[in-house]
Design a protein that fits this description.
2 copies of one chain form a homodimer.
Chain A (H helix, E strand, L loop, with lengths): L1 H11 L7 H14 L12 H8 L3 H13 L3 E4 L3 E4 L11 H10 L3 H22 L2 H16 L4 H19 L2 H20 L7 H16 L3 H24 L2
Antiparallel strand pairs in A: 1-2
Helix pairs in contact in A: 2-4, 3-4, 6-8, 6-9, 6-10, 6-11, 7-8, 7-10, 8-9, 10-11
Chain A binds a DNA duplex through helix 4.
DNA sequence: AGATGGCTCTTGGTCATACCAATCGACTTT
DNA sequence: AAAGTCGATTGGTATGACCAAGAGCCATCT
């Protein structure tokens, strides 16, 4: 029969021809990859772009939604759709990881361990590469921690900034982005539990140990200090959760 | 004027009321987080779900597109939309990282370094936790490498499977997922360059060194062996690129 | 002349509706 | 009973319209 022939052809032709909207996503990605779209650029209006790509506006919008979901595009009503600015610390959208955590039932211990692995590597790299400026910034954040031992909220800000600075000093933006992904999720958990001021002084001391190791250009010591710090932080977190 | 009053109220009321389609995404995410939607589950038909959530079908579809973009939902035409099965190695969609690489101009050296950091941690963990079964699997893949020294394509398959097995043995699915993200992108680069058979034997030997360290429950040795292996792989890759 | 307010146009956000295409299942036929 | 067929279900796309929020222009007022 002719129909079975058609099926055969379909099977042969099974080069996974994506749906039309996947085609749009691919087109846009390639435009970005080829540098035709640079950070901060504005895309043509949806109506024009849809015509230009030969698809309907809803289809185009589905593609834009996908790219917006991964944090690459940023539509602003009335203004246009923009390629996201690559400013500040590189951040990958953590929603994907958060959803995967829900689906696969990741344990907090697993997440802490992942963060520890990332930050230990980052600390070691920072010890090799940190500039004087970055080290000064770390020092300032530690000073800020000691100055806010009785203001947990403020302390947390300095804490996060310190880790950001170390990550920047590592010179590896990918590790930085991955660390941010994991840290964001852990932070959401942490912000739910009451922050007790008890351990803050000890925490600040451990940050100082990390800083000293980096300042002394001692990667192994930096790695160990970071491990000690995060192990303690995890223990404190788990202790707090038991009390709820 | 009444209008300026309205503006004032608007400013006060600035509780960042997300767009309607973001509301949909949030609803779906919470359903997943609360366990109402489990891996493999099928969502209600779009027409029904749209009515249920009080939005139009295009809006709902935009939300589904977003979640599909991060690999959580998987629409199948004619069948329905499913929550993705959490089977096999955990894999986060790498498109986000790939796009970020384009936007921020990540260097290959940076990506190699990120992979190295991740896999060194993974190897150390695997040395502590690998089961006998997993070690046997590693051994088999190494055998496969030696058996395909003159078939680069086949060798590469065993290579990748070995690293997958080590990652699984690490017991940390987050690190595994992150490693896969980075490795996927590097693999895309690698598959473009011609694979020369010259170094395959040496590569296989280094894999064996990793395996032995894991078998001996020696985390430090495993970490070092993994570092040596990936450093050499990077050097070989860079050498090949010079020849193009 | 400069600043300020409002107006209008651009542009993303939403909706309703219709039709196409792939899949699945029940029914019919052999 | 097995296999093919047809129809219902369901995601994919298209058209067209309207709403809402910025942005920029212009007229008015100071």
């Amino acid at each position: 029969m002719a129909e079975s022939n058609a099926n055969i052809f379909k099977a042969i032709d099974a080069e996974r021809r994506g749906t039309s909207f996947e085609e749009v996503v691919m087109q846009l990605r390639e435009m970005i990859h080829r540098g035709e779209l640079r950070p901060g650029d504005r895309l043509p209006p949806e109506r024009d772009l849809a015509k230009q790509l030969g698809v309907s506006r809803p289809t185009l919008r589905a593609g834009i939604s996908s790219l917006a979901a991964v944090g690459v595009l940023q539509p602003r009503r009335g203004a246009g759709t923009f390629v996201v600015e690559a400013e500040g610390p590189p951040t990958l959208d953590s929603s994907a990881l958060r959803l995967m955590a829900s689906l696969q039932r990741f344990t907090p211990a697993e997440m802490f361990e992942a963060r520890r692995s990332l930050e230990m590597s980052i600390a070691a790299l920072a010890a090799e590469r940190a500039t004087g400026e970055q080290m000064a910034e770390m020092s300032e954040e530690i000073t800020g921690m000691f100055a806010s031992l009785d203001e947990p909220e403020q302390f947390l800000v300095h804490d996060m900034r310190f880790h950001q600075t170390v990550a920047a000093a590592s010179g590896n933006r990918i590790l930085t982005a991955l660390m941010n992904m994991v840290a964001t999720i852990l932070f959401e958990v942490r912000s739910k539990t009451v922050r007790r001021a008890r351990d803050l002084k000890e925490s600040a001391e451990m940050h100082r140990a990390i800083y000293r190791a980096i300042r002394d250009r001692n990667p192994e010591a930096a790695r160990d200090a970071m491990r000690d710090h995060l192990m303690l932080a995890q223990a404190a977190q788990e202790q707090e959760e038991e009390l709820d």
